[in-house]
Design goal:
Helix content: 55-70%
Order of helices and strands: HHHHHHHHHHHHHHHHH
InterPro entries: FA_desaturase_dom, Fatty_acid_desaturase
Radius of gyration: 21 Å
GO biological process, one term: lipid biosynthetic process
GO molecular function: oxidoreductase activity, acting on paired donors, with oxidation of a pair of donors resulting in the reduction of molecular oxygen to two molecules of water
Number of domains: 1
Distance between the termini: 24 Å
Protein name: Fatty acid desaturase
Keywords: Membrane, Transmembrane, Transmembrane helix
Oligomer: single chain
Largest sheet: none
Number of strands: 0
Number of helices: 17
């Protein structure tokens, strides 16, 4: 962990005092100088660049599907493995744009939501309605880290077995999504009670099992229905093609394996997006920032496992409307301008391995 400043949390050892850190987190006041600098130094970075968005997204999707095609069609095992790896990493990056779709002003990127859903969202069974209207709740000032946050679990304060279960659940994601779209969604049109369950519990990319989604309204409801219908038709056609023999079972299984691998990679990334040390109480903005993670350069692996700006996840919690391609510049400005004792310098970490090990040790200590 790279810490060059002092905060109430740096006096508590992360591996042995998890409960103390959770208590200290609730006492962290807002670093007003940091928050003021964040607002002042990044005012010109809020506009998304359509060329960067479209070229990055389409290139990633093309590479991902090309790798999938080679993995399915090649008769060379080694080539299949390499192509599958390329496909997983590229589709993972392309899928990461669902995060940008949930934040960006759509008038600034006309057609991008449709493009995302047509190219990635529907084919990979994760249309953007499953994230839009969910992710913004994670950023709500009074919801972060509480039982009303769909994207938070106090993992550092839970039992050791929760971590492997957390990862294993993502392995089954494509199977669950196929069943949801091909079976539950059509049936729910005729069974109101089932529809309520589908909407509340199976229509959002959430990790908090206690979260219940509310039905969308207005334009959001219209987008939901269109995307859900498309995902249902695609799922039914896909399964129908397999059962009728038009789609080879081997090709279908390779597709599922790649989609499942994308889901696992994203779940591992989610595992280290936060420190997960809040025990359910509302936090100050600075405390939310300190419970989140930046993995800035010079390391380059984070650009692979935390693409599309996700390596600056803590900074993103301070600047949720800043597009992914501007977060690196925002980080450079803030790092250069903020004083050494600023809380901003306390959310920078070295890499994936250390963060996973820290979280695992926390659960082991907690479960002892």
């Amino acid at each position: 962990m790279t810490v060059t400043a002092h905060s109430p949390l740096t006096d508590v050892q992360p591996d042995t005092d998890v409960a103390k850190r959770a208590a200290a987190l609730k006492r962290v006041p807002d670093d007003k100088a940091m928050l003021r600098a964040v607002a002042e130094l990044t005012r010109d970075l809020g506009t998304p660049n359509p060329r960067i968005f479209w070229s990055d997204f389409l290139a990633s999707a093309f590479l991902g599907y090309a790798g999938l095609a080679v993995a399915i069609l090649s008769g060379n095992l080694w080539l299949q493995c390499v192509a599958a790896l390329v496909s997983v990493l590229a589709l993972y990056r392309a899928g990461g744009f669902i995060h940008e779709v949930s934040h960006v002003k759509h008038s600034a990127l006309p057609g991008f939501r449709f493009g995302f859903n047509a190219v990635i969202g529907v084919p990979l069974l994760v249309p953007s309605y499953m994230y839009e209207g969910i992710h913004n709740l994670h950023h709500a000032r009074t919801r972060y880290g509480t039982d009303q946050d769909p994207e938070y679990l106090p993992l550092a304060l839970m039992k050791p077995w929760t971590l492997p279960l957390f990862i294993f659940a993502s392995v089954l994601a494509p199977f669950a999504l196929l069943f949801r779209n091909a079976v539950l969604a059509p049936l729910s049109l005729f069974i109101p009670a089932l529809r309520q369950i589908v909407v509340e519990r199976y229509s959002g990319l959430a990790i908090n099992p206690a979260f219940r989604r509310r039905p969308a309204e207005g334009e959001a409801h219209r987008n939901w229905i269109i995307q859900e219908t498309a995902a249902s038709i695609w799922s039914i056609v896909l399964l129908g093609g397999v059962f009728s023999g038009y789609i080879a079972l081997n090709a279908f299984l390779i597709f599922l394996a790649i989609v499942s691998s994308v889901a696992v990679l994203n779940q591992v990334r989610t595992l280290v997006a936060h420190l997960w040390e809040n025990d359910g109480e509302p936090l100050s903005v600075t405390a939310q920032f300190l419970d989140s993670v930046n993995v800035p350069p010079p390391g380059i692996l984070a650009s692979i496992w935390a693409p599309v700006g996700l390596r600056y996840h803590a900074l993103h919690h301070l600047l949720p409307s800043v597009p992914y391609h501007a977060l690196g510049e925002a980080h450079r400005r803030l790092t250069a301008q903020l004083a050494p004792d600023s809380a901003y310098h306390c959310a920078n970490y070295d890499g994936l391995t250390g963060l996973v090990a820290r979280l695992a040790r926390s659960t082991l200590v907690r479960g002892a």
